Amino acid sequence: MTRRDLRDAKVAVSLADVTCTLNGGEKILDGVNMTVRQGECVMLIGRSGSGKTTITKCINGLIPSFEPGVELTGRVEVCGLNPSSCEMYELAERVGSVFQNPKSQFFNLTSNDELAFGLEVRGMPVEEIESRIERTVDALGARHLLDKRVTEMSGGEKQSLVFASVDVAHPDVYVLDEPTANLDAGAVSMLHDQISAVLSEGRTVIIAEHRLYFATDLVDRAILIEKGRVMREFSPEELAGLTVAERNDLGLRAVDADAALCVTIPTPGREARPYLELTDYAVLRNGTPVFAPTSVSVPPGGVLGVLGENGIGKSTLLRGIAGIETKETGEVIVGGVRMTARDRRRMASLVMQDVNHQLFSDSVWNECLLAVGGKADDETERRICSALSSLGLEDKRGVHPMALSGGQKQRLAVACSLLAERRLILLDEPTSGLDLDHMTEVARLVRGLADKGVCVVLVTHDREFLNLCCDWAIELRWPERGCHAGGAHGACRKHLS
User: Fold this and answer.
1) Which of 138, 133, 97 is nearest to 117 (CA)?
2) Cα separation of 70 and 98, whole Å?
3) Percent of the chain residues topping a pLDDT of 90
4) Could you read off the pLDDT of 187-197 as tens digits, one per residue?
């Protein structure tokens, strides 16, 4: 994409000395000054919890309108509007938001109704609604999304539908928060092309993201956020020119797509002493396998990665192994014994992709206590302190889990899984929303579990993470294609020691 000269373009978004403070006095933004011009693509980069998402919420009006526990001072202006004082419908006509979890944005059961919803509530004539939908699906290459039930769409299709639902309203500014977190390579490529399409129309795009590689050819500037402050700006050339050591110091993931996505899969050897065995295993829906029947063996201390397209059934496979699915075929053998679903529910620990479904307590500390059965002796407290410290949550022990950032919630769920001390741990996208430091730390913890003889199976689209900690990988296929198994490239694991 040809780089745009935007020096004379008018300002679309500006933040002047913006500070956001929680009720307890903690500053989550501290004097942020930032200007984004019309037609510009800006990426907010930095570690988890640095304030990137908070900046996006200031721009789209969620702060302070929908987060009363956050006090905002300073000045925010978006397309000439003050999000703190203007009517929300006025701001919604100028700003469109795409969140990390697309399910949080749906209001209808079908894709066509979802595309029309925002225009219908504005009272737009039916003919104009239909015309705009046609223009959007053609411009974004999204015609395949029409006439589908939202509940039956893959994660990538849902994210594409959210983007199209935003685009149909023709906003001036697009705000995307971790949009690639749970997307496969094909869906990431589609999102890239959708962003390129709206930029070609002169729209403004602001992206908060850890996976930098997917939009490096689109970005005009990258703004580094640290501890709630703007610390540095990078041109695309400066960002690409960072050495590995410099990126590591800043907590940034790979910028180059080849480095981020490269995985070699040699043929694995047979393991004589498996702990988990799947034999022609599949989960059934209406009597039909969701994915191709799969056979694989994982030894004690082995880490198996599960790859595949969005919607192929990777999360369903983990749920089946954990004993949550009710209809299945084939065998699941754990520790040499064929296990029923009920038996597996007692033996396996599952960290779900949407961790909001498994955080129940009123504080991070009490959530960890639940994981160890509620005991509060000295040894238990030592273990909890160690787990929280290793995942960068030691200063969050009194915080309500729902007040954590997405990446922090993910780390808390992983900590609870580690504290439960099960011999079979199942992780569904454990690095969703995590920066380089915490992704590496989760990989280190997974390898630590493996060293203790724990069997780990993890679903991931994160090839950087897979290269760091997995011994083998299987790629799920659709039922008619069969399943491909292989070994994940393990040479990178030496960097964890």
Assistant:
1) 133
2) 21
3) 48
4) 788 889 989 99
The tens digit of pLDDT for each residue in 72-118 reads 999 999 999 999 889 988 998 999 999 877 888 898 999 999 999 98
CA distance 310 to 184: 6
Compute φ and ψ for 210, nearest 5 degrees: -95, -35
Write down the pLDDT at residue 497.
38
Please tell me whether the peptide bond between 64 and the residue prior to it is cis, using omega within 30 degrees of 0.
yes
Tell me if 159 sits within 8 A of 183, measured CB to CB: yes
Token pair belonging to 486: 């292989």
* Closest to 421 measured CA to CA, from 396, 387, 394: 387
Residue 63 · residue 72 · CB < 8 Å: yes
Closest CA to 98 of 41, 60, 135: 60
| DSSP element (H, E) containing 282 | strand 276-285
Phi, psi for residue 480 in degrees, rounded to 5: -80, -10
d(CA 262, CA 468): 12
Q: How confident is the model at residue 489 (pLDDT cuts 50, 70, 90)?
A: very low
For residues 341-353, average pLDDT:
88
CA distance 172 to 151: 29
Q: What contacts 288, CB < 8 A, 6 or more positions away?
A: 479
Residue 475: both structure tokens together? 């790629």
Question: Phi, psi at residue 230, to the nearest 5°?
Answer: -80, 115
CA 304, CA 488: separation in Å to the nearest integer? 8
Report the alpha-carbon distance of residue 311 to residue 280 in Å, rounded: 20
Cα 489 from chain centroid?
A: 23
Starting at the earlier edge strand, list the strands of the sheet with 472-475.
348-351, 424-428, 455-459, 303-307, 472-475, 484-486
So what's the pLDDT on residue 261? 59
In angstroms, how far is CA 271 from the centroid of its own chain? 33
The answer to which of 111-120, 253-262, 294-303 has the lowest mean pLDDT is 253-262
- Burial degree of 379 (CB within 10 A; 0-12, 13-18, 19+): exposed
Contact 353, 429 (CB under 8 A): yes
181-225 pLDDT, tens digit each:
777 777 788 889 989 999 999 999 999 998 888 888 999 999 999
> Distance (Å, rounded) from C-alpha 175 to C-alpha 200?
16
pLDDT value, residue 5:
67
Average pLDDT, whole number, for the chain?
86
